[in-house]
Design a protein that fits this description.
single chain, about 0% strand
Length: about 100
């Protein structure tokens, strides 16, 4: 284990975990909306990206405790980004196919 990983305090781990789960919830919401609204190609990508940016704004201006306790700005922007887009895309495809492909 690297020394940088051991420097993260339990409070910061809890904050990163909260950021991750909030982004997962927003990914599910964005995926369901993309599927229900029958968004295709670029419009769906715009909606999914907009919801990710919305999570950034929520952490930056809405939930002040998250922004003030995050020491590493790179982690602030990238925590949960891969999971967000993967979950959003999978939910989008599943909902779209269930509702519109008959």
């Amino acid at each position: 284990m690297s020394s940088k990983a051991s420097e993260i305090s339990p409070i910061q781990r809890n904050i990163y975990r909260r950021m991750y789960y909030i982004r997962v919830i927003f990914a599910i919401i964005a995926g369901v909306l993309s599927g229900i609204l029958k968004l295709e190609e670029g419009l769906g990508l715009i909606l999914g990206s907009s919801f990710f940016i919305l999570t950034y704004l929520l952490f930056r201006f809405g939930i002040k405790s998250i922004y003030t306790n995050v020491k590493d700005t790179k982690k602030f922007y990238t925590t949960g980004i891969f999971s967000y887009f993967l979950i959003w895309y999978v939910i989008w495809v599943i909902v779209f196919n269930i509702i519109w492909m008959r």
